[in-house]
Design goal:
Blueprint lengths: L7 E11 L5 E11 L3 E5 L6 H8 L7 E6 L2 E2 L4 H5 L2 E4 L11 H11 L6 H10 L15 H13 L5 E5 L7 H16 L3 E5 L3 H7 L2 E6 L2 E7 H8 L2 E7 L8 H4 L3 E4 L4 E6 L5 H15 L4 E8 L2 H14 L1
Parallel strand pairs: 3-8, 3-9, 6-7, 7-8
Antiparallel strand pairs: 1-2, 1-4, 4-5, 9-10, 11-13, 11-14, 12-13
Helix pairs in contact: 3-5
InterPro entries: AAA+_ATPase (IPR003593), ABC_transporter-like_ATP-bd (IPR003439), ABC_transporter-like_CS (IPR017871), ABC_transporter_ATP-binding (IPR050763), P-loop_NTPase (IPR027417)
GO molecular function, one term: ATP binding
Protein name: ABC transporter ATP-binding protein
């Protein structure tokens, strides 16, 4: 696996975007992306994810702030840096009557790179598009069209790749295949920034996670550190007989009675496994206290649980 370094490949400072009418899509965003990492940007619809990507890729003109990529200020040296950046947009934006091979080849030339038949063939084969190279894009399935977008973005061998909802509208089999391709890109040292609605994919693939809401970055952290700091364990213990009140030995745990005393609910711990250790100790205390139970349903927080909780908290604040 390619090594993630502390070197900043992208540095965003004080980035804001205010549209006509006063809509603030980005609000003083600060974000640094490390060379070689996979960074997942999570947020609800309208949070500013696509606007942020557009600002870096030259599709959106920021109202204020600074974007530096590969040490170049994009406001002054955009062309030099843009050739090293690839973008797979959320919306399909290509000529439907073009053939796959021509569309991907054209994308390479668009960034000033000379024709390279071997590179185009490599990209198409890696995305299982080689057999479709002479097909018009309009003839392809939704999932295959999405692959063409990825192929167009990879044609000029970018060092930094943006994937804006890359698996939206793709069936499960194609989605898994695409993630294999993304893992292979990471192996070659490509830095990847992705947005996704499939949070379990970010949980599996990302090194770091950022959460954005209403144009503001709420949190950026290493995925494992975030899971440990904000993760929780929840266990619901179904009792054999209703319990009117908690015995002193049980009340020391973070538990509450529910369902007319027929359920004991535990919420506590962190993402390090402490919660499950507490649940094991709790069940022993129940047995010692003579309290019988019929079953336990235990659940550890996923990244999605943390994300939903974090966004909900800020909405209520």
């Amino acid at each position: 696996m390619a090594e993630v370094t502390d070197e900043a490949i992208l540095d965003i400072s004080g980035l804001s975007k205010v549209y006509k009418g006063g809509v603030r899509a980005l609000d003083n965003v600060d974000l640094t992306i490390r060379k070689g990492e996979i960074f997942a940007l999570l947020g609800p619809n309208g949070a500013g994810k696509t606007t942020l990507i557009g600002a870096v890729c030259g599709l959106v003109r920021p109202t204020s702030g600074k974007v530096t990529a590969f040490g170049e200020d994009l406001a002054h040296n955009w062309r030099e840096a843009r050739g090293r950046i690839g973008l797979v947009p959320q919306e399909l934006s290509t000529d439907m009557f073009e053939t796959v091979h021509r569309a991907v080849s054209y994308s390479r030339g668009l960034f000033g790179f000379p024709p390279d038949k071997a590179r185009i063939e490599e990209v198409l084969r890696s995305l299982t598009l080689w057999d479709k190279r002479d097909s018009q894009i309009r003839e392809l399935s939704g999932g295959m069209k999405r692959r063409v977008l990825i192929a167009k973005a990879l044609a000029h061998e970018p060092d930094l790749l943006f994937l804006d909802e890359p698996t939206a509208g793709v069936d499960v089999e194609l989605r898994k295949d695409m993630w294999k391709q993304i893992a292979a890109l990471r192996e070659r040292g490509t830095t990847i920034i992705l947005t996704t609605h499939y949070i379990e994919e970010a949980e599996e693939m990302a090194d770091r996670v950022g959460v954005i809401r209403k144009g503001q970055i709420l949190m950026v952290d290493d995925k494992d550190a975030m899971m440990q700091r904000m993760g929780r364990t929840e266990a619901v213990i179904a009792l054999s007989e209703p319990l009117r009140e908690l015995p002193p030995s049980i009340a020391t745990f973070p538990v509450e009675l529910r369902a007319d005393g027929m359920e004991l609910c535990y919420r506590g711990g962190d993402g390090s496994g402490k919660g499950r250790e507490d649940v094991a100790a709790l069940t022993k205390a129940l047995i010692i206290s003579g309290i019988d139970y019929r079953g336990i349903d235990i659940h550890d927080s996923s990244l999605e649980d943390i994300f939903v909780g974090l966004v909900s908290e800020t909405e209520e604040a």
